[in-house]
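Data card: per-record layout.
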Amino acid sequence: MEFNNHTDPIEESMLDARDCSQRRQCYVFPELKFMILAVLYVMMFSPTEAYDPLDPTGNITIKWDVMSWTPDGYVAAVTMNNFQMYRGIMNPGWTLGWSWAKKEVIWTMVSVGLAGTSNKTVKLPKNFTLLGPGPGYTCGPAKIVPSTVFLTSDKRRKTQALMTWNVTCTYSQFLASKNPSCCVSFSSFYNQTITPCPSCACGCQNKKNCIKSDSKLLRRAGINTPKKDNTPLLQCTHHMCPIRVHWHVKLNYKDYWRVKVAVTNFNYRLNYSQWTLVAQHPNLNNVTQVFSFDYKPLVAYESINDTGMFFGMKFYNDLLMEAGPLGNVQSEVLLRKDKDTFTFKQGWAFPRKVYFNGDECMLPPPDTYPFLPNSAYANPIATPTVAAFLLLLLSIW
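The structure for this 397-residue chain is written out next.
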């Protein structure tokens, strides 16, 4: 059985003997190799792959409330709640599927026939799948939970479901795609070098089908029309990512510092409505002002406040247009310095993690970050001291 939010529901090693000096060694190493492979297999396919350190409890919960029993089944209310802090469902929407435990059918969108007719005889659906809109979600088994309590329409009385079960689905970027979907570049006022996104950061499988920014093909009618399979039409770049996030350390004040953040879309067939951008940086615990984006701190752990979510202002820049002159959004962020931790040394001013629409972006290698000139490492007291000493010499002279 499958539901979606845009269509109607439907049915549905061996070791060389020459390397072994003794027979015993020939048996030990294959066993060790098997153990290593087993550990790697568990690491790659363990459910913990869906764990997100920036949103450790994030999930989508499907709740199935049995509201009444019928002669051949029950009437159920099915709801879906997104408990993820920064990952939404993009167009064209979600698709929910499952397998019936018996031979149930949906007579109408408000009842289920040929199902159990009591708490004891009903069988829970199984094998739930969720696309949002593509792969990435893994759903656990249905579990019976305390019955949901509802308020009546006049909000004066309470009613209760006869039976309730939940299905929890978690997201894994590894399952969604083998390559990232975004990358990050850096620059700063104290270094003319721009650190670009890594080459082929999002894979170069679309390199043969990309289109140059000055191509005449862009004038063709329908070039921006999305395909049914969501195949992207990317602008030719060295990173081949649909999205690039640029973090520029712009200004330095006595008690504050300023960053400019820009998001650029390189996909000619897709715009992003209600986009989100998440960054992790220790100084996000003291954001003074965000100028052109809305901002919300994300405190996944009570003692740590180093992560925040940027998103567009409604009716202003909450829609990131397709690749082209309008395919970018940007804002500046003013942060107050913590004198105990603030520094421009060793790339401290750049984010530790960046996510766009819930997927982690590839950062450049740390050794390529814009670095301070050697003179910037000097003691700030040294220059005034030298100047005072020269003035003293001039007065004596």
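Known properties of this structure: The chain has three helices and 25 strands. Confidence is low (pLDDT under 50) at residues 6-49, 377-387, 389-397.

See the next section for split statistics.
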